[in-house]
UniProtKB/TrEMBL annotation:
Pro residues bias: start-end ranges: 213-223
Protein's name in the database: Uncharacterized membrane protein
One Pfam family here: DUF2231
Residues of the DUF2231 domain: 6-138
Species name: Stigmatella aurantiaca
InterPro entries assigned to the protein according to its UniProt record, in alphabetical order: DUF2231_TM
Domain of life: Bacteria
Region (Disordered): 187-223
Length: 223
């Protein structure tokens, strides 16, 4: 089975989710202990985490244009996921640039820990989109409101161009949706935050992901 382009994002997003918190913890140890070795480790982890996060963000922007988002709640949940991660990555890049020439400081450590705490929420939204709303799941029925639009295979010739063009389209969509939100012309759909009024939990039943079981017929008496 070929890996599709939109599946690149969930494949690479684990790198920044692991590297960035580890970088923040390394800086915390460096600040509290004064150990320069931990400061060096933290700086390298911030660089690796930011670079992997930027790539995961690029893949995520492209994926937002390659999945089916006919349900308004799921569409706005994807928007919140992307917007939140955009702010988090801006903070991570800022910390990385700071750490390139400076040792860790208490304020910078607090900022890094807060950014990683916020990432727990956006990561939770990512899980809810897939496991509860069916966003990006390939075997969804054709008439389902979520699923995938069957983008190009990851290793195909079309994939690099599609990655860039869909990511740019994803940026335009993200900024356009944010503009309408902050202007008050299009508020968030109820439940898009993943909790509260309007969030009913999973909307994808197991029957949508597996073949229908045969309907049992009348029992035939044994001879």
């Amino acid at each position: 089975m070929k890996m599709l382009l939109h599946e690149l994002h969930p494949s690479v997003v684990h790198a920044p989710l692991a590297l960035l918190p580890t970088a923040a913890v390394a800086d915390l140890i460096a600040v509290t202990s004064g150990d320069r070795a931990w400061a060096k480790v933290g700086r390298r982890l911030w660089i690796a985490g930011s670079l992997s996060g930027l790539f995961a963000g690029l893949a995520g922007l492209a994926a937002s244009q390659e999945v089916k988002l006919d349900e308004p709640r799921a569409r706005d949940m994807v928007f919140l996921h992307g917007l939140g991660n955009g702010f988090i990555m801006a903070g991570a890049v800022g910390v990385t640039l700071w750490r390139l020439r400076r040792p860790p400081s208490p304020g910078q450590v607090v900022l890094g820990l807060l950014a990683n705490t916020a990432a727990l929420y956006t990561a939770t939204l990512g899980g809810k989109m897939v496991y509860e709303l069916g966003v990006g799941i390939n075997p969804m029925p054709v008439d389902a409101v979520s699923g995938t639009s069957k983008g190009p295979a990851l290793l195909s010739k079309e994939a690099p161009r599609a990655l860039v063009s869909d990511a740019l389209q994803g940026v335009r969509w993200l900024f356009g949706r944010a503009k309408r939100l902050f202007a008050g012309t299009q508020p968030l759909e109820p439940g898009a935050q993943g909790f509260g009024p309007g969030y009913e939990g999973p909307s994808v039943g197991l029957e949508a992901l597996s073949p229908k079981a045969p309907v049992p017929g009348p029992e035939v008496p044994r001879a």
